Automatic annotation (TrEMBL):
One of its GO terms (molecular function) is iron-sulfur cluster binding. It comes from Candidatus Giovannonibacteria bacterium RIFCSPLOWO2_01_FULL_45_34. Residues 20-150 form the NIF system FeS cluster assembly NifU N-terminal domain. InterPro entries: NIF_FeS_clus_asmbl_NifU_N. Gene3D superfamilies: 3.90.1010.10. One of its GO terms (biological process) is iron-sulfur cluster assembly. This is NIF system FeS cluster assembly NifU N-terminal domain-containing protein. Transmembrane segments: none annotated.
Amino acid sequence: MADKKDIDVINQYTGENWYYTDIVKDHFFHPRNLLMEKPKDENEFDARGMVGSPACGDMMEMWMKVDKTNEKVAELKWKTFGCASAIAATSIYSVMLTENGGMTLDEAMKVRPQDVMMRLGGLPNRKIHCSVLADKAFQKTANDYFRKTGQNSRIVIEGARVVDSRLNITDKDIEEAVLEGAQTLEEVQKKLKVGVGSTPELITEIEQLIRFYADKYYG
């Protein structure tokens, strides 16, 4: 167990100890590819994407330049209103997509939050959802590039599907619950009340979604 002096953050509500790796600290204090101000010329980059809202918490805006000869990510810049984990995760994410000549767009869209976590050396469980912000912002940015270049068939659309019609709970609500740390049916139901008193078939579907998202984000 780490010495108390090594603890980086103590959650004031739960008392949980959070430890950040040296890589996380480096990318938080020295973020790579960060834009302090938005580009003045909208044509400076080939695509732009944004997720979240400053009114409700984390928000990220991303800009990308693409090498047209091989469709590799030449530059990936970003700006965020987010916590230390979100900043560090996005910083390393931007490095991963642009290092060694850059990834192709197809390769970049296959980078998973688990891959980012491995490069960071891990994040506190309660902060794993922060590694998803860059992923979602990049998908929006890639979609913007595909629209601008007439590649509409490559645009990825994520639509919410209602799982529990009584409470109007969607698969995206369950995804968010898992990202916030819920790993079991009981933990998800504590957050959402989804499936309480429902049919065995619905419970099975909810459990399958929980396993899917847990594997997707926690690997």
